[in-house]
Amino acid sequence: MAKIKPFRGVRPPRQLVTEVASRPYDVLNSEEARAEAEGNPKSLYHIIKPEIDFAPGTDEHDPKVYDKAVENFNNFQKQGWLVQDDEDKYYIYAQTMDGRTQYGFVIAANVEDYMTGKIKKHELTRRDKEEDRMKHVRINNANIEPVFFAFPDNDVLQDIINKVTAGTPEYDFVAPDGFGHHFWVISDKATIDTITKEFAKMPALYIADGHHRTAAAALVGNEKAKNNPNHRGDEEYNYFLAVAFPASHLKIIDYNRVVKDLNGLTDEQFLSRLSENFDVEDMGTEIYHPARLHNFSLYLSGHWYSLTPHEGTYDDNDPIGCLDVTVSSDLILRDILGITDLRTDKRIDFVGGIRGLGELKRRVDSGEMRVALALYPVSMKQLIDIADTGNIMPPKTTWFEPKLRSGLVIHKLD
Question: pLDDT per residue over 224-240, tens digit each?
Answer without folding.
Answer: 999 999 999 999 999 99
